[in-house]
Predict the 3D structure of the following.
Amino acid sequence: MALVFQYGSNCSAQRLNGPTRLNGVARVVGIAQTVEDYTLTFDVWSEGNNCAASDIVRAPGRKVSGVLYEIPDDFVRGRRNDGRKTLEQIEWKRYCETTIRVRLPNGEEPDAATFVVREEFREEGLRTSAEYVSHILQGLREQGVSDEYLREVKRIAVGNNPDIRQAVEAL
């Protein structure tokens, strides 16, 4: 089993475990926060979501909260031949796996796999959607992430796409 940190739309366990993604094999460990300094951004185009998708990038003094999952190794990387997908297949060629250290509420700091956008696919000026942001907020709320961090996600999303302000504030 692999520990996997999700900070974007896969914060929603329902979405991650849906039939077109991991189909029920991901088990929620709980909320986690990056130990190193990162910030959430929307800098990669997602054809499946038809909007900018999330990424984390280095940012002094900032932390990203997300959901830590336990996922069978054969659902993290590589390809499956049974009609089911791995995270690597879901994230496709635009993301690459990396290892980061995360902090759990009890103070433990395990290493976890996560997927970040490959440098050549990062773009400025892309806009996310309220629907995409709703998956992030839903998953974070399910795990009890602080209201302060939920406001931060909303602020970042609206900063990325001011046209979604009203919809995001209602989430």
About this structure: The helical segments are 13-16, 87-91, 130-142, 147-160, 165-170. DSSP finds five helices and seven strands in the chain. The chain has a mean pLDDT of 95.
